[in-house]
Amino acid sequence: MKEQIKSLVKEKLSEKRIVLFGAGEIAEEFYQNYKDSLNISHCISNIRREWGEKTFLGVLDVKMFNKNEIGDKDYIVVCAPVGFNAIELQLRNEGFCVYENFVESQIASAILQNKKIALFYGRCVLRDIYKCLIQIPSFNEEYAPVWTRAARHQATVSNRILYYTKELCDLYVHTPKFIDHDSIYFLAPEELPEGCRSISVSNLVMFLYWPQINIKLDEYNACYLHPYNVKRDGDFYHSLYRHEDCNINRMIMEGKTTKEIVKCLSDEEYYSEKQVKKNKNFALKLIDIAEKNVDVTIADYLQENYQEIELYQNFSHPNKCVVWEYIRRLLSELGLPVDEVSKVEKEAPEHTHQGGDVPIYPSVAKHMGLKFINEGEKHEIMTGKGIVYMTFAEYVEHYAEYTKKAMDIFRMW
C-alpha cells in the first residue's frame, strides 16, 4: 500500500498541472523548491485579501477556490499545515479524494525526494530537534522529514497530516506517552506500516532551576489563578504566565507592594540551601524515572552540566545545547555520523524555539552553585511588544504588575 500511494502521488505531480492551495510561507517554500521541476499553475485561497493577478511572489495568480475551475488535468498541493484539517474536509466535501486529487505539501515533498520518510510527532522540543536535524547533511541524504504537532484527540479526527503520513513513513520519531500530557494521542505500533522503525525521544520539562513554578497549573486548568486571554488583557502580555510564580501571586494576595516583592525575592537567602537541594534532588529523580525505556535519553547530560551551562530557557523550552545533544544521540541511534553536528551547532541561533527566559532566583543560583549566573544579567522576556531585556528585579516587577492588572481585569470580566 505504501509504495502504491507513493507511486500514485509521484505520477500525479509529474503529469498534472499543479495548483497550490495556500499563498503563504509554506506555498512559497514549495514553489521555490519545485518551480523548475513541476508545472505549477496558480494558487487558490479561502482568504479574500490574497486574491489577485500575480499576487503570489509577483508571479502566480491567486484565485478563490472554485470546484468547477479544477479540472481533470489539475492536481492540488495543500500548503497550509495549520489549516490542513479544514481544507482537507472542504475538498472532500466537494468530491475530491486525497492522493487521487490532492496531497499535503510536506508529504508531496517527501515523496518527490525519493528518500525514506521520517515522521516527527510531538511538542516543542521534538519540533526543535526536527528543525535542527534537517540541517545535517548525512540525515538529509537518507531521510525526507515531516513534522506535525502532537494532537489531543484521535489522529483520524484532529491531525490529518499524522493520519496520512503514518501510512507512508519509514521512521517514526516521537515522545513517549509517560512524559507527555495524558490527553495526547499516540500511535499504536500496529498503526505504523510494516518495517517502519519507531524511536522515542524524551521531552523533559525541567523545574530544576525554578522551585517557584506550580507545574500542575496551566492555561487549560480552570483552577488557574488568573487565566491569560489576549482579547481581554490587551498588550500587557506574559507568555510564561501559564506556569505561575507561586511566590509572587501569594505575596500579592497578602497585600505586599511590588517593591516589597522584588526586595524579598532578590534576597540570596529567600530559599534556604535545604529547600534548593530538596527541589534539585526531586527534579533529577523525576528525570531518571521519566526516561525509563526511552530510546534517546538526555538525563545524564543534564545531571552533569546543570551547574556549568544554562540548559533551559524556562520550564519547558531548552537552550540549544540540549537540542543539539539530543540530535547527536538521535543520529547515533540511527547509525549516522555525528561529526557534522558541531559546525552546524556553532552557527545556529541560541534559541531554536524562542519561548522567553524565566530568570533564576538569586537564592537558587547561590545554593545550587550555578556558574553561568552573572550579577545584573539581562534576560530575554516575552511581552506583547516583543522581547524585552530585563534584570531579575525588573522581571519580578513586570510579573507582579501583570498579575495585579490581570486580577483587576479578571474581576471585571
Description:
With 413 residues, this protein is α/β, with parallel strands linked by helices. 39% of the residues lie in helices and 15% in strands. The chain has a six-stranded mixed β-sheet with strand order 3-4-2-1-5-6, with helices on both faces. The chain has a four-stranded parallel β-sheet with strand order 8-7-9-10, with helices on both faces. Strands 11-12 form a two-stranded antiparallel sheet. The radius of gyration is 24 Å and the shape is globular.
The shape is globular
Gap from first CA to last CA: 54 Å
Structural class of the helix and strand makeup? Answer: alpha/beta
Spans of at least 5 consecutive residues whose pLDDT stays below 50 are 217-240
Helical proportion? Answer: 25-40%
**Strand tally, please?**
12
Radius of gyration using CA atoms only: 24 Å
- Approximate strand percentage: 5-15%
Largest sheet: 6 strands, mixed
Strand order of the largest sheet: 3-4-2-1-5-6
What is the helix/strand order? HEHEEEEHEHEHHEHHEEHHHHHHHHEEH
Work out the helix count: 17
Q: Average pLDDT, to the nearest integer?
A: 86
Short description:
The chain has helices at residues 2-15, 25-34, 84-93, 105-112, 124-133, 137-142, 155-158, 160-165, 230-233, 246-253, 258-265, 273-290, 299-305, 320-334, 341-347, 362-368, 392-412, and strands spanning 17-21, 40-45, 52-56, 60-64, 74-78, 102-104, 116-122, 143-149, 171-174, 197-200, 379-383, 386-390.
